[in-house]
């Protein structure tokens, strides 16, 4: 006689038996509780995945028709971040994708458990996460890998693994072009004020600067290389103060971001240093802040909005299970000449 038997529903008790733990322990893992030993959590997560268990939150989220993407931003206090976010939001609106923006830094950087955040994203049925200008550790990435949650990083502070999509600009070429612009004007004493010293984009811009000087037969003077610590105005302020204390000051500065350049500009005014008459200044990013400053800042423009769109496109393709053409996306930069650069006032 035929029967309409239903498939047996996976229970927490069955998962507990499989993992060799108690049902309450499985419940803690499912609900993102942190009071579970890492090895125990790993066994439970493996048993849950093998059993194909879906929590109530997952089942409710699966019923939703809309696609939701989480965007994690280190800090939302620069034109760079705003323009990248604009690109993400523009494409999201066009593709009927919902975005949840968190200004909290990368997972675990401020007390968030990577396992808990990854589990929450999976439970709530989100397509994946875009991380902007943050460090993302192997531990954090593994929490997402185990759950097959796509992650895309934009201008990461540390080089991501080869299987994680990263989106950035041609930082080395941009740094070289910025320095070549100053060299073309006749400058030879050119300083570099960087951001976060070990950041991948900062290192690439610095190496581009050094390559341009070397190509002209000039020595790289270590006292002209200033580590700002952050891609912020205060790095430009501190950097110019340090350079003005030198016996022979530079006649031009390449700042690793427009925000740093704005700090240089403000500090120059306090010391009576005229830009570009006494000191030429070029930034990096091509933001509206640099364009609207007085004088308007010459800058290496990044396609910031397109970087945001490229990150979202890649994330959605991964969420659909598509095979990507490349995991490293670099978009072209170009120098936008404005009012802050000119030939040096004295021969060099």
Number of alpha- plus pi-helical segments = 13
**Which strand order spans the largest sheet, edge to edge or round the barrel?**
2-1-3-4-5-11
CATH architectural designation of the largest domain: 3-Layer(aba) Sandwich
CATH fold naming of the largest domain:
Rossmann fold
Principal-axis shape equals elongated
State the distance separating the first and last CA atoms.
99 Å
Q: What is the SS-derived class?
A: alpha/beta
Return Rg in Å: 25 Å
Description:
- Helix content is 42%, strand content 16%.
- The protein has a six-stranded parallel beta sheet, covered by helices on one side. A six-stranded mixed beta sheet has the order 7-6-8-9-10-12, with helices on both faces.
- The model is unreliable at 1-8, 60-65 and 105-111 (pLDDT under 50).
- The chain is α/β, with parallel strands linked by helices and 348 residues long.
- It folds into three domains: 12-53, 434 Repressor (Amino-terminal Domain); 60-167 and 304-328, Response regulator (Rossmann fold, 3-Layer(aba) Sandwich); 171-303, Response regulator (Rossmann fold), CATH 3.40.50.2300.
- Helix 5 links the parallel strand 1 (67-73) and strand 2.
């Amino acid at each position: 006689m035929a029967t309409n038997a239903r498939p047996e529903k996976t229970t927490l008790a069955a998962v507990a038996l499989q993992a060799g733990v108690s049902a309450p322990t499985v419940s803690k893992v499912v609900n993102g509780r942190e009071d579970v030993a890492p090895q125990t959590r790993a066994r439970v997560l493996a048993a849950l995945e093998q059993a194909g268990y879906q929590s109530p939150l997952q089942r409710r989220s699966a019923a939703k028709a809309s696609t939701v993407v989480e965007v994690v931003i280190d800090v939302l206090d620069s034109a760079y971040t705003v323009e990248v976010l604009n690109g993400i939001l523009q494409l999201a609106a066009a593709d009927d994708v919902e975005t949840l923006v968190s200004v909290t830094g990368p997972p675990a950087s401020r007390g968030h458990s990577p396992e808990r955040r990854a589990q929450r994203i999976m439970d709530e049925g989100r397509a994946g996460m875009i991380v902007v200008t943050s460090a993302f550790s192997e531990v954090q990435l593994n929490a997402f890998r185990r759950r097959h949650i796509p992650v895309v990083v934009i201008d990461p502070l540390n080089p991501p693994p080869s299987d994680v999509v990263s989106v950035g600009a041609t930082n080395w070429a941009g740094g070289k072009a910025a320095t070549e612009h100053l060299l073309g004007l006749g400058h030879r004493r050119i300083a570099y004020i960087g951001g976060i010293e070990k950041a991948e984009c900062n290192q690439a811009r610095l190496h581009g600067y050094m390559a341009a000087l070397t190509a002209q037969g000039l020595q790289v003077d270590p006292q002209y290389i200033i580590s700002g610590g952050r891609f912020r105005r205060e790095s430009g302020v501190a950097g110019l103060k340090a350079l003005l204390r030198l016996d022979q000051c530079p006649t031009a500065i390449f700042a690793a971001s427009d925000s740093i350049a704005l700090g240089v500009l403000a500090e120059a005014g306090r010391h009576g240093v005229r830009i570009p008459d006494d000191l030429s200044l070029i930034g990096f990013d091509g933001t509206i802040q640099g364009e609207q400053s007085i004088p308007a800042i010459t800058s290496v423009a990044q396609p910031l909005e397109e970087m945001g769109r490229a990150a979202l496109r890649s994330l959605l393709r991964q969420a659909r299970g598509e095979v990507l053409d490349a995991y490293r996306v670099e978009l072209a930069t170009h120098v936008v000449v404005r009012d802050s650069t000119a030939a040096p006032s004295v021969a060099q």
